[in-house]
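Holo prediction — pyridoxal-5'-phosphate.
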Amino acid sequence: MTALPRPVLDPKGLRPETRLVHGGILRSQFGENAETLYLTQSYVYESAEQCEARFKGEEDGFIYSRYSNPTVAMFEGRMCALEGAEAARATATGMAAVTASLFSQLKAGDHVIAAKALFGSIRYVIEELLPRFGVQSTLVEGTDLNAWKNAVRKETKVFLLESPTNPTLGILDIAAIAKIAKSAGACLIVDNVFATPVLQSPFELGADIVVYSATKHIDGQGRCLGGVILSSQQFVADHLQTFLRQTGPSISPFNAWVLLKGIETLPLRVEKMQSNAAKLADFLAGKKAVKKALYPFRKDHPQYELARKQMKGGGTMLSFELDGGKAAAFRFSNALRLIRISNNLGDAKSLITHPATTTHQRFTPEARAEMGIGDGLLRISVGLEHTDDLAEDLERGLKAV
Ligand SMILES: Cc1ncc(COP(=O)(O)O)c(C=O)c1O
């Protein structure tokens, strides 16, 4: 007898919106309709023999919630159904997902190539943490394909990138970089947070592993931290399973349940947020105080053609540079009433961030300049509010500048 209920539905052939509502459900003997929150640390066994069989891996079933949990398994199953991935493992945060995807497969002597334009904490892991354990890393200008090729060494095991990048919304050619990684025998990890699973499918472009901070659009309402790693079954079996089990960056079942339910409305939210973002980018681009507005689906974006080819929409994030540096950026932010100052993103509520003094403050001004992060740059995670209310709020900011 297997202790695991079978998933209710085979997602194959179903469209994404349907998979997000039905994918991954493990229904108990009570026939509940809504997914159940299994708040339990451990599981009990019918007999000592059954317990032994579970530990030996001869019988499917739950052992301990650091290893797996039915609610967490539902969240993982739903993410697999959405991405078309063979396997998913959820983690406590997006950073735990990124760190596990690297540390589970790397050893001293290996080499990693990553794009320079990365979320600050990921840059810390690549630049400072991995070298402490004998893993060398090279940071490249991600839009320059020759830079990826030239950085390859025989020890290169992993390529890592995010696209669109944070906070300048640069677009990296995932399919072309995947080819370079494949010919180098390396694994390509894509952090797909800014694009969201709705607007970009890195596996279809050749990625081997996709990671998310589920904290962002997957929750979408600013409540729970979470992360997820999507990969082949083989990667889980060879690397991830044991690493996660023994090191314990497990997600709480409660958080997994919130995310599982949040994900049902993901396409609706992302669609509305991105239509707001596109309108606001156009609104800002026409203003005198704005040096430039950055949005992947605007024709003046440096990688506009690539964005159109690789993404199904321009995304929910926009950035813009004000004349007048930090003082102007602060005056703008302080004048807003609706769009709140916060470093988070992907929330139903619109949020504004000044990258130079928050997410990227640990870099020198020179390093920030190299990444295109000037003191006048602001990033907005556009929410679900009415576009006109948001535009009126931005007008308040512009007046203060
Ligand atoms: C692109 C990107 N990746 C990863 C993370 C880390 O996610 P978490 O905060 O859930 O650890 C973030 C957080 O802002 C992010 O923006």
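READOUT: The pocket of pyridoxal-5'-phosphate is lined by residues 93-95, 119, 162, 166, 191, 193-194, 213, 215, 225, 227 (CB under 6 Å).
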